[in-house]
Design brief:
The protein has 14 helices and 16 strands. The chain has 426 residues and is of the alpha/beta class. It has a seven-stranded parallel sheet, sandwiched between helices. A four-stranded parallel sheet has the order 5-4-3-6. Strands 1-2-16 form a three-stranded antiparallel sheet, with no helix packed on it.
Length: 426
């Protein structure tokens, strides 16, 4: 075993020990630790931003895409938002110790379940340094130790953030090893981490499809999968046009580099001649390229819209996560056709309908098999903080363990407990 591998195993053992201590801590102590993290994020702003600038500069030098650079870059506003999310987590109810489903059996014996931490959660992620703080804060509040392995493109940012987190929690008596960062960027260590089932209870990959697939196929412990989002917004024949433009534009352009951004716009044939020119004018001003099917192309080519980036859709444009100022556009003949398209091309992340027709809205909610389904709202709301969770471990697209934004309760488990009075089984 190499020295780096030995060091990683030592970290995992330390995390297991820290998890035992963390599980016994009171909510008050955990909340003080979180407040300390938020305060240090504010006080050490210049230190963190200086480290982040090194990462961004190196990223530009090595040719990282604009989408990756957007996720990588921090700012004073972003750091304040991260600190605010940590404080929100501190104010949330502590799930640990919550009793659920308590009942008394006919024989007088009491049976119930109590929430307990999972133990040790490991996360492998790319480019977004805010993930370091999000996962650490949620794990601390839920009584879980965590091992964090960010991408090499954010190594300086993650080192600075992990250092201040460990200092903050140590100050209030929380074991520093409850939060550990793997600073060695050797990819081989990820493979070793995936084999540490005796120490790690849950693995969370956040990043591109290749990373997620590698982790899911090689991990020996349960994996929480998510992050790949081919997100659709369907503008129904009964949509309010002004509302539809507002929702669709926000879903695409608020931030196009995130997994809950709109990738495919579906428009009902009856409303397409009125709606498509409206959204096209807005997107032309913002530089959004529209990759259109023949019907949408015909509608828009008949218009004179300055600056419009209009391209015929290729065979791979539907079902593609762009993470770029690009959207696929398709005209459909019915709600059924929209549902079939989403079923074929969706990834189970976030999909929306814009309509004033109650029946159409309810059908969409009932029949679209995705983690988060919207009516008359932007898919960019798929976020733990926006859902009142403070932050999120991941946006899960699977149907086991948890689904959608994963917060505190989703990273606990439970144990049964039985209260008897000399009961014996006949």
């Amino acid at each position: 075993m190499t020295a780096a591998a030995q060091e990683l195993e030592a970290m995992a053992r330390a995390a297991r020990q820290a998890a035992k201590a963390l599980a016994r801590l009171s909510s008050a102590v955990k909340d003080r630790a979180l407040e300390g993290i938020a305060r240090r994020l504010e006080e050490a702003q210049e230190e963190v931003l200086a480290a982040n600038r090194l990462d961004v500069e190196e990223g530009r030098r090595t040719g990282l895409s604009e989408a990756v650079l957007d996720r990588l870059a921090l700012s004073p506003d972003k750091l304040r938002a991260i600190a605010a999310d940590v404080r929100t987590v501190s104010r949330l109810p502590d799930p640990v110790g919550e009793v659920i489903d308590m009942r008394t059996l006919p024989n007088g014996m009491q049976v119930g379940r109590k929430r307990v931490p999972l133990g040790v959660i490991a996360a492998v992620y790319e480019s977004r340094p805010n993930v370091t703080v999000d996962i650490a804060s949620l794990c601390l509040k839920s009584g879980n130790a965590c091992i964090l392995r960010g991408g090499k493109e954010a190594i300086n940012s993650n080192r600075a953030l992990a250092r201040l987190i460990r200092e903050a929690i140590s100050d209030v008596g929380v074991p520093a090893d409850a939060v550990q960062l793997v600073e060695n960027t050797d990819r081989a260590l990820v493979g070793q981490l995936l084999k540490m089932r005796e120490y790690i209870d849950l693995m969370v990959p956040r990043g591109g499809a290749e990373l997620i697939r590698f982790v899911a196929e090689n991990a020996t412990m349960p994996v929480l999968v998510g992050g790949i989002g081919v997100c659709h917004t369907y503008v129904d024949r009964a949509a309010d046009l002004e509302k539809a433009v507002r929702v669709v534009d926000n879903a695409k352009t608020r931030r196009w580099s995130i997994c809950n951004a709109l990738d495919t716009l579906l428009v009902h044939r009856d409303i397409a001649p009125a709606f498509l020119p409206l959204i096209a004018r807005v997107w032309a001003e913002k530089g959004i390229e529209m990759r259109c099917d023949p019907q949408a192309l015909a509608v828009l080519e008949a218009q004179e819209i300055g600056g419009l980036k209009l391209v015929p859709a290729g065979p791979d444009d539907f079902g593609k996560e762009f993470l770029a100022p690009v959207a696929a556009v398709k005209v459909v003949g019915s709600l059924d056709e929209a549902l079939e398209h989403i079923d074929r091309y969706g990834t189970g992340h976030s999909d929306a309908i814009v309509t004033e027709d109650y029946s159409a809205a309810m059908r969409f909610l009932d029949e679209v098999d995705t983690a988060v389904v919207y009516v008359n709202a932007s898919t960019q709301f798929t976020d733990g903080a926006q859902f009142g969770l403070g932050a999120e471990i991941i946006d899960s697209t699977q149907k086991t363990i948890a689904r959608g934004p994963v917060g505190l309760r989703e990273i606990t488990t439970y144990k049964w407990f039985v209260l008897g009075n000399g009961h014996v089984r006949p």
